[in-house]
Amino acid sequence: MIHNQAIDHGNVFNFGQVSKDYAKYRDIYPEEFYRRIAKLGLCIRGQRVLDLGTGTGVLPRNMYQYGASFVGADISEEQIAEARRLSKEAKMKIEYVVTSTETIELPEHAFDVVTACQCFMYFNVEQSLPIIHRLLKPGGHFCILFMAYLPEESEIARKSEELILKYNPDWTGAHMTRYNPVPPKGAENWFMVDHIISYDITIPFTRESWNGRMKTCRGMGASSLSQKEIAVWEKEHQAYLATVPEVFDIPHFVTMIDLRKEIV
User: Fold this and answer.
1) Angle formed at CA 187 by CA 105 and CA 29, multiple of 5 degrees
2) Is a pLDDT exceeding 80 seen at residue 2?
3) Is pLDDT of 205 > 80?
4) 8 Å CB contact between 25 and 213
5) 3-state SS of 126-178?
6) Are 13 and 79 within 8 A, CB to CB?
């Protein structure tokens, strides 16, 4: 459970309560996303990687093919349970721990790379940056990754957001647009900037997979809404999706901020 006054007007949210659906519907990053990470020289063979806010282990499982050794960390026991299940089914040797970034207890200088995918906005930045710095080897990299759909460029995405806001007007995750990615405040005290990348990408969905993706977002399934409210939203959302093609594309915007710990 996460509580942040700057997010959703302070309402609590918990991705653990949608872990099974999250495991089914939120593994949506295309192969290009992972190739670009590897092109930066990150999460590749010979490296030990810590993935913070790993959720169901989406990033470690998809980058496993590039040869790095992974540890995934998440605050949710339910998310980690799904990550372990999926990794075991895929015969992948990935270590997982249940912990917040702010309270993580792992050896210092233990990792070549630390990643935070779709989650860094939930961390206490002031506490997290020195912890990540401590966990990295000299010359190690901290990579902040984010991918968002663009509702102003997709009627389906916009209509889906409008339905969520109808039932959860406190959700502050709507209306995403492109922006110029910058390192988090205070990062200059701990890291050098190696790369900042942003690009557009289009991702195909079916009616079912898009409904699942939206149901598991912070504003709906992970929110403090009741199960009855979520069920009413889903019925209305599925009725809307019945009016669109079975398969459709949703435009997305990706940012990658690659920070490096200096070698002293």
Assistant:
1) 75
2) no
3) yes
4) yes
5) HHHHHHHHHHEEEEEEEEEEEEEECHHHCHHHHHHHHHHHHHCCCCCCCCCCC
6) no
